[in-house]
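Q: Is it fine to ask for two folds in a single conversation?
A: Yes, each is treated on its own. Send the first.
Q: Here.
A: Result:
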Amino acid sequence: MANRRIEMYEYQEALYRMRKGQTDRAISRDGVLGRHKAAAFRLLARQQGWLEEDSPMPEAAQVVALLAARMKGSRGFSGAQPVSSVATHAERIKRWFEGGVKGVAIHAALVRDHGFTGHYSAVRRYLNKLKAGVPVEATMILDFAPGQAAQVDFGAGPTLLDLSSGKPVRTWFFVMTLCFSRHQYVEFVWDQSSETWQRCHHHALRHFGGVPARIIIDNPKCAITRAVTDDPEVQRAYAECAQGYGFIVSPCPPADAAKKGIVESGVKYVKCNFLPTRSFRDLEDLNCQALDWVMHTAGNRIHGTTRQRPLALFELERKSLKSLPERAPEVCAWARPKVHRDAHVQFDYCLYSVPYALIGQLLWLRATSQQVVLLDDAYRILAAHPRGQRRGQRHTNDDHLPPAAQAWKMQSPAYCLERAKQVGPACLALVRRMFGDRVLDRLRGVQSLLRLAQTFGAKRLEAACVRIGEVDRVSARTVRLMLEKGLEQATEPVAPATSPIYQGQGRFYRKPKASVAASMH
């Protein structure tokens, strides 16, 4: 109680009691002023002639001015003012305070680096004096007419088990609050992507049954691509959503959350009044409980600002909302991908093909839940694919590939066998033997063999295959050399391609005497 702040009305009460003859002890016993302060104040009042009942009571401003000039100590008005233990570090503390350093960190730095032995409370008292000298920024209350605006924000939700991955995943909750009635919509989601942001808008507006004139948002990346005060840039997909519903996007200035304080309070209300003491099986159960809470608890409470029930005010505001469009805008995403060397672009961890002539160029990509469309700068459609449903999925149109790749994909083993059959039985037999290799993939060799029919004709290729079959060779290169030299029509049998060194004996054959002699040495 020694450091208790004495209010002006308490000094006036004490002065009134002194004029009526009460002692300092009686005043102290009634809790008006401490005995020592009462004695010091009595001395001051006697000097000013205030204790005479015939004299008028002094004005409050006069007492305050005199006290400010005469107050010296905590136990009276004549003692010396004690020196604070942080006085020698005042400039240093002030510099840290202006730099945003917290009091605990300041006290720790003084103890660690400057030999300070005082208590943290001394630092705290000095910081309070510095804070008192900082002017408070004025603000204003934002009033909204019915249907004029809604405010939107995300908040951090509980961690739930994701059934698709089997891992615990952090959830988020989307809140849209109508500014006039304070009626809100709450939905829990897995992410804060642009498509999730738009989908939540669809659900919220259908929940309200209408569209407010403008929607006030912060600057999330799913909605704003450039967050600046004077010229913000709206994310393209969100702009389509706003145009489809007919509302105006109103971003707050960066780092100025007070401009959407209504929904900020709504997010805090969900965190403090809905999430605690509840348990949830999965995301579906969480959203069912949230909707029930909004309609039966949050909607029927007496709101702290309006002093009315949000659902009651919503019945008035509903008539001022604009009608929902006959056809809701599509939930979509826009991207600016670059065409890779394999004639594919990547979006959301999936690959989509485009004509190979566009390799290295930047394209426009528009993705909905079912389709991905690629466009050039003139917004002409270059390719369209079904939307990939899993990471790593590839959608390829063979017509988009370069000719060599198309030929490779078209000339499958089944295709090559059919072409070899058209050439002749010897060619078909050679191709089958090449495909029968259990070690080496012979598809490219078979394709090279069949292309020889275009250069030398099918009859000559069949004749070469007959000749190569006589020596039990399986080589497309040998067939090509025979055709280039015209050997497929020769009457002499083709000699086996073996070295004369091994003629007449085994390749690793060694005479017994030579083997014994070698072992002795």
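Q: Second one now.
A: Result:
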Amino acid sequence: MKNLHVSHELMMRRWVMTEEFLIKIIGLIAGSSVLSVVIIILYLFNRPDKFEHWMRLFYQLIHHLSSNLPSVKKAIDRKLVAVSIQDTVNHICDQINEESPDILPHALKIEWIKSDTPDSFISKGRAVVRLKHYDNQDRNFVESTLLYLKHGFLPRTKNYLDKTLRQSSEYKVASRVFMARRDTGAYDYFFENEMMPAVKDDSRIQDDLQLLENLDGVGLFTRVFLSEVTVTGQKLLGTVPTDTVKRELRDFARFLETIATKAKYENVPLSFMGTKVKASVILVAKHETIDRHGIDPYTSRIQRLLREGYDSIYLAAWGVEFIKAVISIKGKIEHDMLTIIRRYDYPVYSTTKAILLVCQPKSSYLAQQKRLHDEVRQAFMDIVPEVKDGLVNIVCVSRVEKVGMKVAIKTVGPELGDPTRCCIGAGAQRIKQLKQRFPNEFIGLILWSDNLEEFVKGAISPLNPKYIDEIQIDDENLIVNVTVLSRESASKAIGKAGYNVRLASELTGYLINVKLPPSLAKAQSPEDELTEILKREIPEILNREIEVVRLARIKGVGSKVIVRWTVSDPVQKHRASEACYGYEHGNLQRIKEYLPGERIYFHDWYETPEDQISICLYPIKRHEIESVEVDDSSQLAVVTLNQGANKIVSSERDLNLALCEEVTGFKIEVIHL
């Protein structure tokens, strides 16, 4: 059975459509029986795909009846055009969301304005488009759809795509919308007035459109590529969309294109192991394998992929025999090895001709995040009746296990007022029960707001908004810069070990930077200068995936930086120091451009001081060290080098030791055997 999972945002968009339509329909049936009203309401609530369609028919009827009333007909005509566009766009968007949830989570709502300056924004769960009404209905259709996609398409994750691939993806979705209405000239207008001018300005768009067309031809555009973009965005929620991630997603699209366009017996790479995208495709397509060995080779390969750390596994087959094999594989791997996220059947003349299973290992990052968030949602449902009854809605959650959480909440109706009172309870009984459920974790209740600035103010609590001087929002790069009035305010907003601002970033989906006004900013120390450069040139440090544990710098000479991963990844392929150096030391070369003549060393963090000192003594190599003896009380470390150790020029040795001492916190004496 096709997976019919509908996200929370999709349910909310449908409820908003229900509210608006019921107001109109109840007025029409006011004279009917109560039973008729109930039947119609229940039918429409259970068939949300029909809301806009019935509204369209309603306005068509009124439009016809008002043919002799020009002024009324003109007003109704505008309503009819808006509802007709909404009907088409929202219907296609629902289809796309079934192929990959959360690609288009907001329904379209059109508002006609007199101004020549169009606008679009998210409000009350819908993507509102405001633009001028033209006599050319194809122009209305095209411009409103493209404005809608500007904010409604992958709202939190599209900025992780580079500019041309993102624009081409929007055009691909738009083409599907326009092709659904062959009774209009919308596609031709779009092709001539939007797509072709864009291709003329940038030929790369044409190449990307062809790439995405190749993916879509075999069902990989929405179900695999955009699905992986969404997954990557969820992993990176609250981080800067770096060029590294954008290049990786483009490489992944090309990887899928190789599979989509391969010849029948051609062998092509089926696994993609990037820094963030770790996906593999398994094609069940060889008769000899099934005939000789059954499904065992496929289950063995899945086990190997899990050991190698792949986050997504796509299991695909074409033809009755191979579809049966995939279903058998599903029965063997589900629950024990993988979680089946979605299943797609590809019907041809009502018969299934192909199948695609989207799977994730139970230990994947997203699976762990889902577990952490589900625990929070379940606890609130158990303890807060209003949440269970649907009167208080948990919009989103951010959580670091054994540290704390932030929960964004809002009321579904106005009758409850402040939802935080419901969650706290009389005498704070409910919040006490929640804290018992999550011992040693702080719980932050945040009022949800469609206004990002207001939402950010709440998200960085316990800082009082009155201590915020300015908020600057960079929608392109998903960054919010919050300038506060004092150092105490900055400390409160950032929180202990940076957890408060980290949780706020994850909750809002924007990287939140807390800054002091220029008048309070102190003169930059050499270490602060290096820290800023590291954040600028190493994406993993900027995105808080790698933590700088300690660093030491002698200006004009060099630096030593101790780093470690902040993410819990048992199959991490690279040490944190290797990631900081970058591929072929690319990061290091860029950093040196800021600090000419300085030597920079990255060292991995170790728990024991002996190991930490040994690694930080580089360029003295570990095999040259005979022993390291540490006296914690005096903070003295005696390092004995063996006879094979290279002799270092005295000045260089002294500077290296000085940096090593500063970064480790130990006085170091070196003895040669």
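Q: Anything structural to flag on that second result?
A: Two points. The longest helix spans residues 70-99. The first strand starts at residue 107 and ends at 113.
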